[in-house]
């Protein structure tokens, strides 16, 4: 071995290099406070290694970026671990960098003759932050897409050259494919090369002037090897252990594929930038402008830090005290603002609802990508665009939630609210039926057993209140009245309908009507996806007889659905108005075909006729594709899902908060 080392040293001079690297003097002995620089170099090395591994499977384009990250995360052997290490090591670098800066200022390592090294460290800090910002976009998911868009918008307010800087960063005037490739080039090429170059300079200047010792009398002078190397190695091992644990048990997040057509209200920067995000939300800062909060103030802070060597030069020890006070004050403000942002987000109902939807979309995207159809050739973004489970709630919230509810919410998990004169945020009552269990057995049974209660929400509508007033004034008014109609008169005898002698008849007609809908039903509490429920053929036939012939006992003996409704039990077909009988058709009631026709023509005689209050949705308001997605969601016609759905909110109290910001106003959901 000695002969080999001697031969290698003769050719390369390795012994001299090792001696120079390992036998640096450490006055005052090895200290734990000196480990931060080494942990930063170690973490960067970890980033380079995992970065090359990710690079080997990553494809930087708007149609392949999310797809390749999905492959890394869920298909590639140990890919989740590699990506997790890279993700959390990046966060560790920011934390270690902040600690290193504080330690440098406290120990006065910026003082002459080390000013240049301090400024080189500041350049390195900017490069590390640049790596964090550019890496955020690369998965091309909703979270990174919208958060990075905020960053590029901030660039546009740079004094004098804002628009040019934004165009340069985005790769053009539009935010898209060129933005991704440019950010990838910066993240994987330009910035790492700059970091290596400045790191070499930083270490060279550091070795030229030696270690800044906090207390030379702390312990006898020693060498970097082996005492300080041991402490550095232990610190690096701890960093690696923390990163590994986070990568294994928490994992790097991958939200839904980026879709410019879908507003992403849950977007937030990474936690170490939350302080700036919260600072920009102060009313005073918003009033002054984005340029002040995002450019001027951070620029002044960096300027003060950069001038610390000169502050000490001209003010001596008092200047050093000012520098330490400033860095502690800055650190305290960052901690407080970060905590404020996290606490406010956790208490803001609108943000939590957006976050829940984001998690739902992310889970669904992964589910569809691993499903039988895999990822389509036109990109993963189409997975959710074509998915009724994803798009149905959005379409319901946009078009239906102004009147209807879906298990008490707007379809997307949020309550429909308004601010009262007292300042409370109050839940608005629905003015039409809750469609959370539309066409289920429970829905059919509720109509048969207690029609007035089933449609009692009509009474909350202004049209109903106006009609009642007009009727009380002696006018002849034609309107839907859950308490006064042929159906309410018949269904107003729940004791007779649910009597023991009618138990089988009730079960049978409910089964028959449920079968007419021709689809299964997914309850709000189910997490097992849409699934068809088994039907009882014998009950269906018995129910058909009850509906068409009347087989009830007691006070409702002999009555049948066919007494009023025609087309019962037939295949659904659009009936011309002049051939309709004036009562809603029950042909395939609740089926996809019936529902589509009803949404397009609710005022037709085959539905509500002149009594109708629901607006008709033309293709210009709700396209055929959107209608199909909405109806398929309501009829549970989609790939089964294990993603937890929105919780049932029908029992929510009427007053949810005294803060109007905690729930979206009613008009936001319409």
Strand content: under 5%
Radius of gyration: 34 Å
Number of helices: 27
* Helix content class: 55-70%
Task: Please tell me the CATH architecture of the domain at 32-267 by its name.
Answer: Up-down Bundle
CATH superfamily of the domain at 32-267: Cytochrome Bc1 Complex, Chain C
Kindly state the number of beta strands. Answer: 5
Question: How far apart are the first and last residues' alpha carbons, in Å?
Answer: 79 Å
CATH topology of the domain at 32-267: Cytochrome Bc1 Complex, Chain C
> Main sheet?
3 strands, antiparallel
Q: What class would the helix/strand composition place it in?
A: mainly alpha
Widest sheet, order of strands: 3-4-5
Shape: elongated
Mean pLDDT: 88
In CATH's first tier, which class of the domain at 32-267 applies? Mainly Alpha
Q: Runs with pLDDT <50, length 5+? A: 520-529, 653-670
Structure, explained:
It is a single chain. β3 (417-419) and β4 (425-427) form a beta hairpin. α6 (115-137) packs across α7 (142-155) and α11 crosses α14 (308-347). A three-stranded antiparallel β-sheet has the order 3-4-5, with no helix packed on it. A two-stranded antiparallel ribbon has the order 1-2. The protein is mainly alpha-helical. It is elongated and about 110 Å long. Helix content is 56%, strand content 2%.
């Amino acid at each position: 071995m000695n002969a080999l080392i001697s031969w290698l040293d003769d050719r390369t001079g390795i012994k001299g290099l090792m001696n120079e690297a390992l036998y640096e003097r450490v006055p005052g002995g090895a200290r734990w406070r000196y480990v931060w620089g080494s942990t930063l170099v170690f973490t960067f090395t970890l980033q380079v290694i995992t970065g090359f591994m990710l690079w080997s499977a990553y494809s930087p384009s708007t149609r392949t970026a999310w797809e390749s990250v999905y492959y890394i995360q869920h298909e590639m052997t140990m890919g989740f671990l590699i990506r997790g290490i890279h993700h959390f090591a990046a966060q560790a670098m920011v934390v270690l960098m902040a600690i290193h800066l504080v330690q440098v200022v406290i120990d006065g390592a910026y003082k002459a003759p080390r000013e240049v090294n301090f400024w080189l460290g500041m350049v390195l800090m900017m490069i590390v932050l640049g790596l964090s910002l550019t890496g955020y976009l690369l998965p091309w998911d909703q979270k990174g897409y919208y958060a990075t868009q905020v960053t590029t918008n901030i660039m546009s307010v740079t004094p004098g050259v804002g628009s040019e800087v934004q165009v340069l960063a985005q790769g053009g005037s539009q935010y898209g494919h060129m933005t991704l490739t440019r950010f990838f080039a910066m993240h994987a090429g330009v910035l790492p090369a700059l970091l290596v170059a400045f790191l070499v300079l930083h270490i060279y200047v550091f070795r030229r002037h030696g270690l800044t010792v906090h207390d030379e009398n702390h312990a006898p002078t020693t060498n970097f090897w082996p005492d300080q190397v041991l402490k550095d190695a232990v610190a690096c091992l701890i960093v690696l252990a923390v990163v590994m644990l986070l990568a294994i048990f928490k994992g790097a997040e991958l939200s839904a594929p980026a879709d410019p057509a879908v507003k992403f209200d849950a977007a937030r920067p990474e936690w170490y930038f939350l302080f700036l995000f919260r600072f920009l939300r102060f009313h005073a800062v918003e009033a002054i402008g984005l340029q002040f909060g995002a450019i001027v103030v951070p620029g002044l802070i960096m300027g003060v830090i950069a001038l610390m060597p000169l502050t000490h030069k001209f003010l001596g020890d008092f200047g050093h005290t000012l520098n330490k006070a400033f860095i502690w004050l800055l650190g305290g403000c960052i901690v407080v603002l970060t905590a404020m942002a996290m606490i406010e987000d956790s208490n803001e109902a609108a943000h939590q609802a957006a976050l829940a939807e984001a998690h739902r979309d992310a889970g669904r995207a992964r589910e569809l990508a691993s499903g039988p159809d895999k990822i389509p050739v036109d990109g993963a973004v189409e997975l959710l665009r074509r998915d009724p489970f994803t798009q149905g709630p959005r379409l319901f919230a946009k078009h239906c939630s102004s009147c209807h509810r879906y298990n008490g919410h707007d379809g997307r998990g949020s309550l429909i609210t308004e601010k009262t004169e007292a300042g409370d945020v109050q839940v608005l009552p629905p003015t039409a039926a809750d469609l959370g269990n539309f066409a289920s057995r429970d829905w059919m049974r509720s109509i048969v057993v207690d029609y007035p209660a089933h449609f009692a929400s009509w009474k909350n509508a202004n049209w109903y209140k106006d009609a009642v007033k007009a009727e009380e004034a002696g006018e002849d008014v034609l309107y839907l009245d859950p308490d006064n109609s042929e159906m309410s008169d018949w269904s107003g005898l729940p004791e007779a309908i649910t009597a023991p002698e009618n138990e089988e008849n009730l079960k049978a007609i409910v089964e028959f009507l449920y079968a007419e809908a021709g689809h299964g039903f997914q309850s709000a509490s189910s997490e097992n996806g849409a699934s068809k429920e088994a039907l009882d053929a014998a009950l269906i036939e018995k129910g058909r007889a009850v509906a068409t012939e009347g087989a009830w006992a007691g006070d409702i003996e002999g009555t049948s659905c066919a007494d009023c409704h025609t087309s019962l039990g037939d295949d659904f077909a659009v009936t011309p108005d002049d051939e309709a009988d004036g009562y809603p058709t029950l042909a395939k009631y609740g089926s996809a075909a019936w529902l589509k026709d009803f949404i397009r023509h609710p005022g037709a005689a085959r539905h509500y006729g002149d009594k109708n209050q629901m607006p008709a949705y033309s293709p210009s308001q709700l396209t055929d594709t959107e209608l199909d997605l909405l109806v398929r969601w309501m009829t549970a016609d989609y790939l089964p899902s294990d993603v937890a759905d929105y919780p049932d909110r029908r029992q929510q109290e009427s007053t949810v908060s005294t803060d109007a910001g905690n729930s979206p106003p009613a008009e936001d959901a319409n």
